[in-house]
Design a protein that fits this description.
By secondary structure, the chain is mainly alpha-helical.
Length: about 400
């Protein structure tokens, strides 16, 4: 492991604090990114007390990398590189990562690592990426080939998992020249998830699907969980637009994914809050007591609608809905402190499905469950997508 992460992290935060001066003149993407650097000088602890290989770390690192690309500011690459050099040893072994757990969340940090590897062709990075790819080769699947969310959640596909693994797999296949079946497999994951999770009446997607129908949360007929959790839909939607970026031109899966994206965009625009432009924790229950406008889904869907429209996968009206959501996000969720740092309010801390009812609280996927989960500020799952959406909003208009 790198012997000097603390010294390097202190250097990063000094630069970040200096960058906060005059922050009001900077774009929101940069202001948010500089806030992350200032608050978290050690990237291995972005969302944990101890160093951890986790999807929340990967999400923020991906966002910061994109800010670095947009601004050509070297601070962000140094910060991203510090994380991976701290977590990956010379033989490509990843600290705190255990492939035998077959946890799909642990694949997500591979996306930013692929971006770094594109500039720094270190052998240890390649070996670490191959470990993640090997997990996906061996990962347990449903009878139709759908990736389980985790080994401890047998026969289950969750919307979240599409974001965690599919864009990485597509990017890996592109970077390392894997044959066409790798891209076909990625497309098939979205097809299967929509097939089993989509509600025909609303067009929205249920959080999870249990092929075995053994989970208490699973409908005995359909296998679906009972509610439309906003962030889960946001994860799936972000995965779609990012995977479309990676598929080769002319691949038939592009039209398949674009059609899925459009169906989902139509559905989420119908449940967008007309006053704020944001979305609720449980998407279709906006007027129900206990429900609330939630930051992470609002940032995610704003980003997806704007980017999807810009790239021609969606219509202009979807892009307008995304911009309205973004402008509403600034009013609804963003607070600027006297020090120039941003606080992003009202993000659901975590939500899932199931668990061992003998050892822990069982997550039944009901409306009451989702609105009862803890809410916190500055959750990476809201901050990262806000940076994505900001970068999209800040793109120069076409002449």
């Amino acid at each position: 492991m790198n012997p000097r992460p603390r010294a390097r992290s202190l250097a990063v935060v000094v630069l970040a604090l200096a960058g906060l001066a005059g922050a009001a003149e900077k774009p929101w993407s940069v202001r948010a990114a500089e806030t992350v650097l200032a608050r978290h000088p050690d990237p291995t602890r972005l969302d944990s007390e101890q160093p951890k290989w986790e999807y929340t770390h990967g999400l923020l690192l991906d966002a910061l990398w994109r800010v670095g690309e947009a601004t050509e500011d070297p601070r962000y690459r140094r910060y991203v590189e510090l994380y991976y050099d701290s977590m990956i040893d010379g033989d490509g072994r990843i600290s705190t990562y255990r492939m035998e757990e077959f946890n799909i969340d642990r694949v997500e940090p591979g996306k930013a690592l692929l971006a770094l590897y594109g500039q720094v062709h270190a052998e240890k990075y390649r070996l670490a990426l191959e470990r993640l790819r090997q997990q996906m080769r061996e990962h347990p699947r449903t009878s139709e080939g759908g990736l389980w969310h985790k080994l401890r959640y047998p026969s289950q596909m969750w919307l979240d998992g599409l974001y965690m693994a599919a864009p990485f797999l597509a990017r890996y296949a592109r970077v390392f020249g894997e044959p066409g079946p790798a891209f076909d497999d990625v497309v098939q994951q979205y097809v299967l998830m929509e097939r089993h999770a989509r509600d025909e009446k609303t067009g929205l997607l249920y959080h999870g699907w249990d092929e075995s129908r053994k989970q208490r949360w699973a409908d005995p007929r359909t296998g679906r969980s009972p509610a439309f959790w906003g962030r889960a839909v946001g994860w799936y939607a972000m995965g779609l637009v990012e995977t479309l970026d990676e598929l080769p031109a002319g691949h038939p899966g592009r039209a398949t994914l674009a059609a899925i994206l459009k169906r989902l965009a139509n559905a989420v625009v119908r449940v967008q809050d007309p006053k704020s432009g944001a979305w609720y924790q449980v998407l279709d229950q906006g007027g129900r007591e206990g429900n609330y406008l939630e930051a992470s889904v609002s940032a995610m869907l704003s980003f997806v609608l704007m980017k999807g429209a810009r790239l021609g996968h969606l219509e202009a009206r979807h892009g307008q809905a995304g911009r309205r959501a973004y402008d509403g996000f600034l009013k609804e969720f963003v607070v600027v402190g006297q020090d120039g740092r941003l606080t992003i309010q009202r993000a659901c801390q975590v939500a899932g499905l199931g668990g061992d009812p003998e050892k822990e609280r069982y997550r039944d996927g009901s409306f009451e469950y989702y609105v009862g989960e803890k809410v916190r500020a500055d959750d990476p799952k809201a901050v990262g997508p806000f940076i994505f959406a900001s970068l999209e909003r800040e793109r120069p208009a076409k002449p």
